[in-house]
Amino acid sequence: MRRLRACLSAAAAVTLAAAGSTALVAGNASGATSALSDRWYAAAPYLMPLDNDPPDAAAIMDATGLKAFQLAFVLAPDGGGCTPTWGGTAPVASDTAVQSVIGAIRAKGGDVSVSIGGYGGTKLGQACADPASTAAAYQQVITKYGLHAIDFDLEEPEYENSAAIRNEIGAAKILQQNNPGLYVSVTTAGTADGTGWFGKQMLLEAKAQGFTPNNFSIMPFDGGFNGAASQTGALTNFNSVLRSTFGWDEATAYAHEGFSGMNGRSDTGEYFTQADFQTVLDYATSHHMDRFTFWSLNRDRQCTPADNGGRTSGTCSSVPQSAWDFAAYSVKFAGATPPSTTPTPTPTPTPTPASCKPARSASAVYTQGNEVSYGKHNWKAKWWTQNEAPGASQWGPWQDEGAC
Question: What's the predicted TM-score (pTM) here?
Answer without folding.
Answer: 0.80
